[in-house]
Sequence to fold (488 residues):
Amino acid sequence: MGRKLPIYVTLMMMLALSLVPKPALAGSPVFNVDLEFYPYYPSLIKWDKSPAEFTPPSVCKNCHVKQYKEWTGSVHSFAFRDPVYQGELNKANKAVGHEITRQCEGCHSPAGMVTGEIKGPGNTGLSEMALAGVSCDICHSISGVTHWQTPSHEPENGSFILSPGIENKEGVQLVKRGPIKPHSGCGGGFHECAESGLHLRAELCASCHQVYHHDAHFPLEATYNEWKHGPYAQKNILCQDCHMVDIEGFKHSADQFAKPDRKEYRHYFNGANYLLTYLAAGAAKKAGDDEQAKILMKQYDMAVERLKSAGDLEISPEYQNGRLAEVKVRVKNVRAGHNLPTSLTNVRQMWLEITAKDESGKIIMSSGVVKADGTLPDNSRIFNSDGMGENFHFAVDPWVITSFSKHDTIKPKGYKDVFYGIAAPGGVKSLSIEVKLRYRQADQKVAEELLGAVPKDIELEKVYGLASVPPLPVVDMVVKQSVFATER
Ligand code: HEC
Ligand code: HEC
Ligand code: HEC
Ligand code: HEC
Ligand code: HEC
Fold:
């Protein structure tokens, strides 16, 4: 006891201690983080590194024109260049640094993150592969997932394995994985083919469509879990069956719980983001690329049509002592395979607008009417979530939010009832009620803040023709009218 250790032993011990990886981000006392297993933490991607390189989409296009044209209009192809993303990434970089923005890049441009090419916000000097976001060679190089090994033991933050190819005694070979049984000529001499069951399951999408706080592992976006715990998963109707088919195909999958035919699958990845595709179409037109602008406007139309077919409304009167006292509005999620809305529920806005008028057209009651400054009145019935930081204060930024003070969205094939009190003045015999279920990508102020934060090398006016942020377009998902007698 108390004996001094030889100096070299002390030095060896100090060296050994300094080699133990230090948890750079130690915000998660609840979950174990294996930094050796996840070298890109807080991104949970793993990369089977070999001399086989990633291939940009313009090369795949040579032999797969159809898939390329479908994908190029999708939000996946803009996942990194998206100015709204770049604005938030820039804010994250300033607030917490590149250590944490790796998490974002891991889902918005996986290849650019693992190769170390992307070092922060902005597009300048990046290769086609990095700029291409969620491109062909991301999905078709995914060889497995580590959903059970993640800190939360759920799919999250890019928990997949990228294996673009292998090196063996015949040299370096690219291997692309998909739904087809390999046959001679598969890959056209450019790549080997490997049949992959994973590509026919929702787990392929899960790793990226479960966005968790970078270190507290709180689920900020949980589209996959919403789907998994709902009726579509029970009937094996996958993300692919609604998002990798055209609009008619999606409605068929949703209504009949029936799988599309093999030959119906397309690479549209069409969702709800009509704003981004509209902005991108404007940029393509400005750059003189009319064909690309057309592809993007088709995606725009599809996103609007998808939103218009996702929900439904029922309006009914409630009488008390013979007088009309309340209007009940039932909001139904009829065709979204997950909650409505899903994903960025603390940013997206889906709300009810209601107006009740008397016989002369005079407004007796209204709620949810957008104000002149573009914001919603406080008492609007909105289906969303409110993020909360560690100090229990309201927060929007994903690196701050570690819980929700409210999470109010509608489950797949589920509904929520909303009651509006009504007091018709004496003499009024009937009221005409109009109810709208409305949707937009974000609150006006939030959109202005994000677009105001884009890195300097993305010139909104030059590229997108945006001198300022215009009023955000609103889609009316459902509009219903009814006339009710004030007495019964
Ligand atoms: C696990 C994968 C993943 C991670 C990590 C991730 N995102 Fe995303 N992000 C997504 C997905 C999926 C969407 C689309 C959700 C939707 O459309 O509602 C998205 C959407 C967004 C949008 C909205 C874009 C638009 O045009 O409306 C912004 C902004 C954004 N992410 C920023 C970030 C930032 C900043 C980070 C890091 C702090 C980050 N994301 C980390 C997957 C991820
Ligand atoms: C987000 C992931 C994802 C991206 C990005 C993606 N694919 Fe696919 N791809 C899939 C899935 C899933 C299937 C299987 C669809 C099915 O069930 O038939 C598939 C199928 C395929 C097939 C088999 C034939 C077919 O069309 O079904 C080819 C070829 C293909 N993809 C090429 C491409 C090319 C080229 C790109 C880029 C332009 C691309 N993929 C981008 C996920 C992706
Ligand atoms: C030189 C032409 C050529 C190039 C370049 C090429 N492919 Fe292929 N690929 C083929 C052919 C041919 C098939 C077989 C198609 C079939 O049977 O329908 C194929 C099949 C596939 C399949 C289906 C594999 C399976 O087992 O399900 C995928 C996925 C795929 N390619 C992805 C890609 C991606 C991603 C790129 C770019 C990184 C790419 N291909 C580049 C020619 C090519
Ligand atoms: C490598 C990560 C990654 C994978 C794998 C992935 N996605 Fe995505 N996906 C994203 C990101 C990031 C966005 C949002 C990009 C943005 O808004 O800037 C997105 C957007 C989308 C959207 C558009 C959302 C909207 O608001 O319009 C749909 C639909 C979608 N993904 C479906 C799928 C499906 C289906 C699969 C599986 C076949 C899949 N994704 C696999 C990362 C991924
Ligand atoms: C039964 C059809 C169906 C299935 C299955 C389905 N979706 Fe959707 N998805 C929709 C509809 C309809 C919308 C538009 C309404 C909404 O935003 O919820 C949508 C919207 C989205 C959006 C955009 C959200 C936004 O606010 O911009 C993303 C991302 C998405 N889905 C991803 C997925 C993923 C990932 C899966 C699988 C885990 C999946 N979807 C399964 C029908 C489906």
User: Anything to note?
Assistant: The first strand starts at residue 46 and ends at 47. The two ends are 94 Å apart (CA to CA). Residues 17-23 have pLDDT under 50 and may be disordered.
